[in-house]
Every structure is written in structure tokens, then in C-alpha cells.
Amino acid sequence: MKAINKFIYLVFFLFTIASLGQTAKVTGIVLDENSNPVEGVNVSYQSQSVVTNKTGFYVITIPANQKVVLVYTHVSLKNITATFQLKNNDIVEYNPVMSSKNAQLDEVIIKNNRGRASGIISIEPEVIRKNPSLSGGIESVIKTLQGVTSNTELSAAYSVRGGNYDENLVYVNEVEIYRPFLVRSGQQEGLSFTNTDLIQNIEFSAGGFQAKFGDKMSSVLDITYRKPTKFGASLEASFLGGSISAEGVSKNKKWSAMTGIRYRDNSLLVNSQETESNFRPTFADVQTVVNYDASAKWQWSFLGNIAQNKYSFQPLTRQTNFGTLSEPIALQVFYEGQEDTQFQTFFGAIKSTFKSNEDNTYKFIASSYHTQEQEYFDIDAAYFLGEVDSNIGSETFGDVTFNRAVGSQLNHARNDLDALIINAEVKGSHNVKKRFQIDWGVKYTHESIRDRIVEWEVIDSAGFSINPPIIDIPNDQPYNPYVGPLVPFQNVRALNFVNIDRISAFAQWNTKTTLGNSQLFLNAGVRAHNWMVSGDNITSSSQTVFSPRAQISLKPDWERDMIFRLSTGFYYQPPFYRELRDQSGAVQSDVKAQQSIHFVVGNDYNFKMWNRKFKLVSEAFYKTMNDVNTYTLENVRIRYRANNDATAYAYGFDCRLNGEFVPGTESWFTFGYLKTEENQDNRGNIARPTDQRLKFGILFQDYMPNIPNVKLYLNLVYNTGLPGGSPSYADVYQYQSRLRDYRRADVGFFYSFTEKNDLKPDGHWLKKFKELSLGVEAFNLFNNQNAITNTWVRDAYTKNQYGIPNYMTTRVFNVKLTARL
To answer: Nearest Cα to 186, choosing from 146, 134, 142?
Structure first.
């Protein structure tokens, strides 16, 4: 093992040293006024020229140590010229914005600064596709951004500034996306909804977002799928599964479509964990987008997805060593039984856009989400809690020499859920006299939930069954016979048929003006949300909330390119079904919406360093929360108490520095500080389950100067430990220990066969490919033991309960092939 670690460190060191050089190119992406990539732009110098591809990307080689004027031309856009004088082996990225021939300069400026003024983070899709990730989705990159934390690599779930996983909004093509209800483990989650092969734009906000976004308390992830302009295809294959996609357009250019198919098998990952098992989880989905341009003013689109997750699990044995150097302890577990969990989801959405003129746009969006989920398991675990021989010279060093506790635990579940969610929405956008913009929308949602919960747990320790703490009857077997009731330690049984009807609406106003010679961006809006809960044997309840929000951004007339932002507002989260269900499984229809008030102050600074572009974004935030619906967190399953019995707060500071640390690539470094606490029933403040105090994240891209075909992609995250939770029925105020720090590094080394395709002769077989690469990925490079939760084991001899860490994946290697036409 030491030899492997030394080899990995040596390889990583050599790649880092070798990548310190530079190449001699001008590269970038050509954009239009709406920040969309422009295909077919001719970039020329004397007799040499290249043409941008459908993503607007170009690379051109120019002479060094002399002035060179590049000319950018397009049939429908204004020409642009740019002058360069580069040293030998330099690379410069230049991303010009080409204006239409009748466009006015001030309109272009407004659109260029809009994202910065609203605090939106934009991510290039190529960064997502190349980033080494166990989940294979966009969430692996989101977790490296400022304000975002996660301590599980097998899940798409993430926490933003102290919020839980249910507090994040996710949109694809302006349609809200939902997660499975019953998922309790990141291993069960499989594929995230978003297919990275189909993405065009990615935008993210960690708080203080505008009223046009929905009613959640933490963050917004807004994803737009691209609209095909010609035929294309992609293929990705690895030891973890694969994906294939294809796209094309009709002859009359009115129809376009793309379809992606994905398959994933996590056996390689799960087999690296400490629990030996017979296990083959498989996940697959099919996703398609169809676009129809009925006329210049009217467009239609359809987004559909069918996904199936199968999780069959038969654990065999497990051994976890914990404790201290002076008192090492081991937990040995022998299992019988199995788990059979399945999630099937069907999703469809239709979107119609009508642009009556250049100043008025109307949209109609209808969607349906249907999920059928089952969670069946019977697992009997016989455990031995023993002392480990810590004498280095002993023949039994590392072995269990004395069993401190012997017991068993039987877990049973027969959980079924069927949910149907239907949405219908109308939205409008109006540009009033070129001075300000008004956006509005009205949305109706119907949620029909059919849920059966049958879940119980029996614990036997030292020969007798343990009752839950709510039964206060002495049990001192074998000295005296026990005459009380024999009941499970946990027992949850419920049958719920629930309907939730929602009507929500928003209106917002934004403009750009001047303050002296400075630019001033203003946004103000309000949301309203009414919901009614009804169902079998449920008392109907109806509630309404209003959420005013505002943003102000100032771009001073300075030589330095800076924008200052202030965002504030009320962010309500009306309860979803899972938030209405308490820990006994009963639905509490009168649960209030959780309320959060955001205060966010930020600075966005663009500057040049080493003649390359960089951006430093920093934000300080404070959130005060009322009517908090407290919860417990088990792996990725959230169980609410459904009583609004707490208040809470969160404050901190986040920053991100991104730019071309290596010419021609984008990388970033993030830092975050967070403190979040809650006060239940006025008992005092304790850490919330998501109180992750410090966070460091690095996403780094590199290449070898002498062999530019060799690429390196590094994803590194460090988070301080989360609270370790508490045993069932225990008082959380008595359990405030923390898990160990989360440390993880994933790295990928790839060889690109198409790096210099523009220099290859016509007819070369590689000219058919936009990208063809083969590489090796190393997940958890330094083989750190990261824990996601604790398993609580009772020692009948000492009457103590031990929190046994549940460790995640160890080091895993993967080989991946990527091809794009």
C-alpha cells in the first residue's frame, strides 16, 4: 500500500512539474449579444483562418514576437479586429462578443453585466463533462463552488449555506425537477436528472436570488439544454457505465431533437467499501428534447425522461475499527437477509414560447412527474463489539481479543410510494420603453401522494430485547424476569393518501440606470404562494405566504472592473409531502412554511494577472430563520419532526478565485466559513445537522506543454466534520460530537487524439471527431476514510452507546473513453 501511495504521489508530482510551460495559441469562444456561442465565425490572419464550431470555440496559431491582427467575420454580425503580440509558447484566451448590425452598444452592455449584477455563477458545460466524478453529473462541480458543501460522493445531494438537501431549487429548461422521495442512501440514488451531454448553459445562485425563482430557502440551479443546429453524436464508456447521445435537425430547420441514454453500475464503488456484500446496483435513463419552430414568433419544445434505479443489496460481513490509540475498539458484524429497492420515474414537459414583438414574450409550461418507489428489506445483523490488541509486538496485533458486547439488530421495511405531480404555468416578460423590464408568472401545482410505511427495528443486546426509551419499565434480566410489553425499538406504520394544491405567482421589476458615471442595477419583486393540504383522515388546512425580495448592484466608474451587490428578501419554503410527515409517519397538515430572511453583500472583481483573465467573487451572508421544521439526517434521508418548534440562524463568508492559472484552461479555488445553529423549544442553540464550519475546494485543469495532448483534471474538496447525529429516540442536545473531516481528491489523466485537429489534412479519420480521448481516473486519490453518518451500538456492559462511523468509498480506479462527432 505504501508503494502504491508513493507511485501516485510521484505521478502527480511529475505531471504538475511538466505542466508549468505554455503553448503559442489564441483560443476562446465567440459569443453574440445574448451570450450564446456563435457558430461559423471566420477567424483569420493573412492566409491562415479557422472557423468556430457550434459551441463558438476556436483555436488559431499565430507568429510570436510580432504584432498580429486577427479579424473575426460573420455573415450577420459586425466584424471585430483584435491585436496580439505574444511571446514564444504563450497562450491567450480571447472571447469576443459580436454585435448584430443594427444593435446599439448600450443594450449589449446591459446583457453582458446582467449575470454579474444578479450574483449568478455561470459554468461552462465542458468543465462538467471533463471533471472526474463518481456520480457523473453536474453536482460534482457544484460541490466545489462557494457556499456549497457535501460529504458524500455517491449522491447528487448538496447543502448550501447551512440548508438541507430539500432546500435547493433545480430547473431544466425552466421546469422544476424533483428528487426521489424514499432514497435513504447515496448508493441508491444513481443518476442525477441532468444529462451532461445535452447541456448548453449552467447558472447557480447560493442565496439572495430573484423573485422569478421558486419558493425554497437556499439555492437555485438553472440549467438550459442546447438546441441542435446540425447532426452530432457522443459516446462515453467506462468501468462505471456509459452514455450515448445523438442530435439532428430537419431539412427545413423547423424541427430539431436530441436524445441521450445513460447506464450506470456502481458495483466497482460499493465493493471498495468495508461492508462485504453481494451487490449490483444498476441505474438507467432515457432523456429526449424535441424542438419545433412553428414560426419566427412561436416555438414549442418537449422534454421527456424515463429513469429506473434498481438497488439489490445482500450484506455479508463488516468490520470497522475506531476508538483511540490507547483504547482501540472494533465492530464486527455478520449479516443475513437482503434489500430490494427500486425507483421508477416518468417525466414530461411541454414549453411554448410566443414572442409577439421584440419587447414582449409569453411562455406556457406544463409538466408531469410520476414516481413509483419501493423499499423492501429484512436484514438481521449480529454484532460483536470488542477490544483490539494494540501491542505492536504481539502475535495477535490488530485482532479482537475480548468481546465487550454481543447483540443483534433486525431491520424490516415494506415501504411503497406513488406520487403524481402536475404543473401548469404562464409567464411573461416585457421590455418597457427600453428603460426597464417587468417579469411575471402564475403557476398551479397538484400533488397526489399515496404512501405506505411499514418500518420497524428490533434490538437484542446481551440476551434480552431492548425497549425504546418511551417505555420506562425496568429490565434487569437475567436477575429478574421481565413482565413488561415486548415492542420494537422503532416502529413506524402509516398509510397516507394526501393531496396538495398550490397556486403561486410572482412579479418583478428590474432596470439599469446610472449614478453619476457609475452603472446601477436594480431589481425588486414579490412572490405569493397559497397551498391546501387534504386527504383521507386528514384535517384540511390552507395557508398563504408573501415573499418580497430586492437586489441592488453598483458598478463604479473605476479603472478596476468591480461590481458591488446587496441582496435581501424573505424566502419561504411551503412544506412538501416529506416535510408534512412526522417521525411516526403521520401527516401534520398544519405545518407552517419555514421562513428565512437573507442578507447577502458581495463583490465581483474582474482583473488580469500574468496577462490572463481572472475573477474574484466574495460574499458575506446572514440568514435568520423562523418556524424551522427540525429534522434528523441519516445518510441522505431527511426525517422531519413536522412541528415548527425551532428558530435558527446561519452566517458566514464565501469566496472564489477563478481564471487561467494555466493558459487556455479555467480553474478555481474556493473558501467558505459557515456557522449555523438552531434553538428547539427555547432550550438553547445547538449545531444544525449541516453545520460544516470550513470548506476548501479546488477544480484544476492542466496539460503538459511538451505533450499538449495529455490533460489533467483535478477535483479536491476539504470540509470540516459535520455533527455526528444521535441514536433513535435520543435527546439530540446530549449528542453533539462531530464526524471526522471530509477530505477527497479525484484526478483524471486523459490523452486527447484530437488536440491539433485543425492542423490535420482534410480526409484524416480524426477530422470526423470533435473530441476523442482516453484516460484513467483515480477517485479518492489519497485513500482517505470519509464518514457520512454514525451507526449507534449499545454496550450492555458499560451502558454506553458508541457512534460507529459509516465509511464511504476507498480509492478506486476507472478507465474512460470519450468520443464526440
So the answer is: 134
